[in-house]
Amino acid sequence: MSAPVVADTKQDMELNCRFDMESEELYAVKWYKDDQEFFRYMPHQQPHIMTFPVSGVHLAPQNTDCDRIHCKVQLTKLTRHHSDGAYRCEVSSEAPTFRLAAETHNITVATLPKEKPRILGLEETYNEGDILSANCTSSPSDPAAIVTWFIHNQPAPQKFIEEMRTSDNDGLLFRS
């Protein structure tokens, strides 16, 4: 199974499941989120595909592709607190063996920053003892990006750092 570790709310998320049935016949491929089935592919039944409502899961049916060696589903309209979870692909074979194989991936959904952080207020050079006053601002995200300052490749002492948090109209967070 292939799936992202972190999925961005601004993009669709693709889940892929590949399998080798060897000499056995495929019975079903099922997709679950947090142990709730949301998709089923059964090549020998009509309809081949069935979907089930699960909170935070919105399928893009035109981007679903399943056959006897793989099954790809695409999810859209991801939300941070509802689409997070454990996604599992479960593959089973026909009678008489009814073998079952499954793989699970935990996926975190977040709104990732669109841009690199912006640093303002830096001079070209400093002399020892000079006071440096600069601002590093992340672009909007949820959760807020973590901003870390370094001095000579070492994290700057916390006593030299002032953190400010704000949010935009969409509720996305900034950190400076």
TrEMBL record:
Q: Per the database record, which ranges form the Ig-like domain?
A: 1-108, 117-176
Q: Which domain of life is it from?
A: Eukaryota
Protein name (database record): Ig-like domain-containing protein
Taxonomic lineage is:
Eukaryota, Metazoa, Ecdysozoa, Arthropoda, Hexapoda
